[in-house]
Amino acid sequence: MTSRLLMPWRGAKVRPETAAGVGGSTRATAILDWEQPLVAALVERVRREVGPGAEARAALQVAHGIIAREVRPVYSVEDRHPASRTLRLGRGSCSQRMALLESVARAMGVRTRVRGLLVDGVFWYPRFPQLKPLVPEHVLLAWPEFLLEQEQEQEREWVPVGELFDGVAGGGEAFSNRGGETLFDAVARVGVDWSGSVSCGAQGGTACDLSAQVLLDLGYFDSRDELFEQHGQTLCRPARLLAEPVLGRWSAGARATTA
């Protein structure tokens, strides 16, 4: 029942870049505009809350908490909006809120990159039960990773956002994309993995493994800007222009039938 009518045309497949070939960056981009005053102020707030000498992982966890509390989740379809705009509006999609978290990371000297994934549109059916025919056949997801120092080790390792709270989250039910919890919020509570490589432990078997929802792995990119430049966004431009005024304000914190 998913639709291709509102999606952009995608040409020949570009050979995916492997993780080893993408080193990420700390530079500001059009989307990750961490040099803007609003984002810079958020970074300073995070630094004050974690205190001097705090590890980058702890600082990003604090930043995530601030964003989760103060940036209202909505269904915006404009993935290329600058992070500063999301912060100024006080609302954003999961993609936009993750971009804001990446911006904070880069401002603090933490390299970031993204993994591009085409996720089955069926995964979003629970949020739009009455609009299934309009749900895109696949959704382009920019999944962030952060280059972080590991405890008791001198080496740095790429940590996907779904493992940012590893060992800290309280567990419980795996993320199901139902109800008021968004994907951005869920990572603070439970592991979220798209590759099937993470053991879900207390979450129960393979409950937090969402790899079955991935239709195509587009590989790694130094920034989400590069991903969207090469592969476009989930919806074509005319569809985004029509949908954004409504979806950009439609709360993702409640079921679509009651929003």
Quick summary:
With 259 residues, the chain is an alpha+beta fold. Helix 1 packs across helix 4.
SSE topology:
Blueprint: H1 37-50, H2 56-70, E1 72-73, H3 83-89, E2 91-92, H4 94-107, E3 112-120, E4 138-149, E5 156-160, H5 183-186, E6 214-221, H6 224-231, H7 237-247
Parallel strand pairs: 1-2
Antiparallel strand pairs: 3-4, 3-6, 4-5
Question: If you had to describe this structure to a student in words, what would you say it looks like?
Answer:
It contains 7 helices and 6 strands, in the order ααβαβαβββαβαα. 28% of the residues lie in helices and 15% in strands. The longest helix has 15 residues, at 56-70. α3 (83-89) links the parallel β1 and β2 (91-92). The strands form 2 sheets. A 4-stranded antiparallel β-sheet has the order 5-4-3-6. Strands 1-2 form a two-stranded parallel ribbon. It has helices spanning 37-50, 56-70, 83-89, 94-107, 183-186, 224-231, 237-247; strands at 72-73, 91-92, 112-120, 138-149, 156-160, 214-221. The radius of gyration is 17 Å and the shape is globular. The relative contact order is 0.21. The two termini are 22 Å apart. With 259 residues, the chain is α+β, with helices and mostly antiparallel strands. α1 crosses α2 (56-70), α1 crosses α4 (94-107) and α3 crosses α4 (94-107).
